[in-house]
Design a protein that fits this description.
Length: 594
Amino acid sequence: MFFVRIMNDMKIRKKLAITFITAAGIPLLLCGLFLTARLREVVVQSTLVQVSNNVDRVQKRTAELIKVPLDISNRLMNDNQMKKTASQTYNSYTEVIQQYHNYTNIREYIQLYKEISGIRIYAINPGALNNWEFMQPTQKLLDQIWYQQAIAQKGVVGWNMIQDERTNAMELSLIRSFPLAASEQKGVMVINVNKQRLSAILEQESFPTFIVDSENQLVASNSIKGSEREASTLYNSSDILSLAEGSYNISLDGKDSKVVVATLQPNDSWNSLRMISVFSIAEITRDANHVIFLGAIVIASSLIVATFLTYASALLLSRRLQRLSHHVENVRSGSWETFLHIDGNDEIGVLSRQFNALVKDIDRLFHEVQTTNREKSLIEQRQNEMKFKMLASQINPHFLFNALESIRMEAHIRQQDDIAQVVWLLSTLLRSSLETNSDMILLETELKYVQGYLDIQKFRYEDRLQYQLTIEPEIQKIRVPPLIIQPLVENAIIHGLDHRAEGGQIRVEVTQIIGGAQIQVSDNGTGFSAERLESVQQELASPANDSKEQRIGLRNVNDRLVLLYGQASILHIESSYGSGTTITFIVPGGDDID
């Protein structure tokens, strides 16, 4: 019942708009939210499949790349000349240099296979030299974990990020121990994987992808152009290096992301490499969000247009009802001659015709009652006329103002606010006229009276009359004689605009000048012809007893200005026929300003 009461109290246009939004807007919004969530889910799932395929591709291409150093290590394991070169006893440096020069396999491997960038053979041999192919391990190198792991694994391959002594750069390297010829000692071979070839595999991927070794050291990455240390720091802080093979939902830098991890375990290796690819859900759903945004714009635009059409339809319906209500109000106020014409054969159109028939019947009955009671009311009417004449002789301004106030309140009660406003303005204007004496009033008060008069005329002329009042705040407190501007405005309306079908504009401007204020009243009415203007100016210049009745407004204002302020305040009239009239005069200020 509460909902029904609210709907009954609501305007029809609002009621239809709410009905449309409830019946169409909310279901459309729910469908949009469901489809949006589904689209995002499909995009994320599709991207996850793509990333998994990309990781598999990286895994296969990396396996093909490291297969080359693995094959070379197998060859070196069976290369007796290499073992002899690394372990034989040399009697002189010349013999060492000659032996290094005769052994060319390492140089040939490096030249032939672009998948590797270097080969180093570490073996303890006091008589040998270091030539970046055959190296004497230092104690620091012997203490390295990877070196000890290679010795301990007895020929099994390992993959680690180790430092190349030549460049001091960290390189992904194959490490493998091998037995030295005619000795129980072991050497370690290190084969560097070509970093450019490894990076080229990752650069082809569209998502951030990187490779790490078993010690979680960053081998290669396509997501960061900086150093490996910076990349390692970033991903270590996100705890993704410790993830096993699979896919995961994690947060990177406050963004929801997906991580796909794949493991590469080369043949005969004691450790493995891992391929990790990361993608931000926000980035992969950017296009989907754009499509969703465009869809939302289309849906919102459609809803706005539909709401506007619904509102327009409701407005058309409500206006027809308002016309009916207006005519009912006219009948209620006593206008029996009203006739309502509403097109259409709908309920409102039928109701309007029934309303006209009802008014016609009531009017007929009303006239019958008037005819029947006319003789009785004639005597009462004569008595009332006598009483009225007696009361009229006793009327005073207080009764007039009370009567006007009663009329204004009755119009307000009947919701005829425009008539109530005009009656109030008329009451205010009459009060100011009747109560006016010789005392000076503020300039802003005079302008209020002028505005009240213009508002009354505005009610009469409606859009035919436009007016503008402008006064500078600094001179609002200047004191002037009462009714010094209103007669000029009244004269502009009566003689300037009253005979123009298109109406016109009245402009009153009060500006500050040295020693007072300049007041200008102008209109765009019919204006004066040259002969008429000359006649008016002669009349203003003539003595007071020669004034003509039709110019009493201008003459009255002019005479009062001259008496109060002298000839400096005489009215100046500028006019031409068809171009309007401008009347200007000056009121001294100075000490009169509060």
